[in-house]
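Submission checklist for the structure archive. All mandatory fields must be present; incomplete records are returned to the submitter.

[x] Identifier: Protein O-mannosyl-transferase 1
[x] Organism: Thinocorus orbignyianus
[x] Residue count: 728
[x] Sequence attached
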Amino acid sequence: MLGLLKNPIVVTAEINVNLVALTVIGLISRLWGLSYPRAVVFDEVYYGQFVSLYMKRIFFVDDSGPPFGHMLLALGGYLGGFDGNFLWNRIGAEYSMNVPVWSLRLLPALAGALCVPLAYQILVELHFSHCAALGAALLILLENSLITQSRFMLLESILIFFILLAVLSYLKFYNLQKHSSFSGSWWFWLLLTGVACSCAVGVKYMGLFTYMLLLSIAGLHFWHMIGDQNLSNVSLVCHFLARGLALVVIPVAMYLSFFYVHLTLLYRSGPHDQIMTSAFQASLEGGLARITQGQPLEVAYGSQITLRNVLGKPMQCWLHSHTNTYPIRYENGRGSSHQQQVTCYPFKDVNNWWIVKDPGMQQLVVSNPPRPVRHGHIVQLVHGITTRYLNTHDVAAPLSPHSQEVSCYIDYNISMPAQNLWRVEIVNRESDTDVWKTILSEVRFVHMNTSAVLKASGFIGASLPDWGYRQLEVVGEKLSKGYHQSMVWNVEEHRYGKSQEQKEREVELHSPTQMDISKNLSFMAKFTELQWKILTLKSEDTEHKYSSSALDWITMDTNIAYWLHPTSGAQIHLLGNVVTWASANVAALVYVCLSLWYLIRRRRKIYDIPEDAWQLWVSAGGICVGGWAVNYLPFFLMEKTLFLYHYLPALVFQILLIPIVLQHLGNHLCSSLLLKSMFSALVVAWFSSVYLVYRTFSPVTYGEPSLSVTELKDLRWKDSWNILIQKQ
């Protein structure tokens, strides 16, 4: 032991100075003056609301994507001590002193800065020269649009970081495949690939495009492994299972964990509750949980209930009736039954209460012990305030003449007898003997005489005229084939009726319940509902001043004004480096043309480049051109408001292609020393122009210094760009 101390302990380490320098410069470019401007910049007004809700533990739903990105932004607020108290209602509003601006913008800026060394390493792992890798990193570093997007509380830089990390991790894993299979580093990079993919998808669903690309590449590589006779069957099975675990199982598990943390943090009721089911709302602290606490679980004959339509959009509503009747004749001349109106009302009201009655008995109270209603039982629904029975008959509905009118029956002593028997069908039952349960059971009411199903039809956007108080229409749907949520109802509020007298019953309808039954949902039930809402909930597509089409992005015919100083005229725009964008398009075109040329020539057994150079060319194209295509082309199929920043993930892959094409041209098409020298000089001149354009537009990238009107006009290189000129 003492002998070991005779010699000094020496630790050696290899440091890539290029990588360190790029990281430092990247951090400076993204973190410099990060708190400026101390005002709400463009979509910070959108994401800031969610950060505040996280700070206050209030539940919300964002239809733009999963919650992981929002949680990362909220983490920045948490680390900065943000209490969530700020009104995010206007772009350009000055931040109050309690808002930690630097902390809120820190994680996107760090992610944007780290994209610079990631670009360098990706080209190294693709086996291109360090000079080409350095060029790719510098192009990312000097791309004005990426700088702008990463310096604010926005998600694109975080998304791009995880996309590039996933690509780099897979390349490192693949390069270790030949000589270090199942080693520690092999497992590390494979697992990191899956983790990065799940994080990319968790930030925005756009990350799914790159995830699918990497899965396809991994599948192709494994297909080639199957043909390797040196690998045993056992080894192939192990490789398959390892990839399945790392690239499928772990990403799915992590994706679920994002929602688990999200739902654990947001346990309080909030403004977005109403689009969720009653069961989900009841699981949150406050709100509906406050109202439904202590309700009986099992619906029995004599129960007093409110019925909420499960569809819940464009607004939640409850089965409702009031003393007014349908007009004898509608505006179009059609006649009605002149019975009491039944509607779907989007507010809580005493007229939403109904009593479940046994058709064979007269009592409207719950017996002792209670007799629960089960799937398939026949019931009558009695309106609590008017004591009239829910009814439908062969009379056309006011707005939906193909469906039956639903009413509360009034006996006019004419030849129209009451038809008020309904069969209870529990849609989500586990067996045919299931009991109808408060909140948990989703039920359909099938009319015994006509087989029509009780349905809220007003969700097409139409509401009843003034005689129906603009409430939503309820009909008996004759053609009830299939399942639709507008035909499904659940009991939201529930009490056991005790008063047979009407006056006492009306008092009872306003009183709170007293029995204590828990209705907690499992995590998977809440996840499934929330995920479905995120995927199906659609915001109203409104034309935005800075919205654009996918075709505008390639040539950067559009820009976005992110912020304007109220007095000095200083402003920030999402504008790219014109030289870089044009070069990226040229590089993509050259790559496609050269690839087609090589393929045609190879078909004729003419090999213009060595086989290893061809494989390098193809693999680089699979990553860069494939990454550009999967992150760009899907936008042509999307029906949503699009902005220039949606193109940034695709742009990054296109930028990576530029040095790849340049190195290929220099190595294989410049045969003489003179041509190589001329080509190198052109590349230096081109790169100098990239830097000059970066410097030219840096005032509208960083927001300072402020420019004069003449200088701002000089920056308008395209007529389609909206550079803001303040009137003097």
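[x] Structure attached
Curator remark: The chain has 20 helices and 14 strands. The first helix runs from residue 17 to 31.
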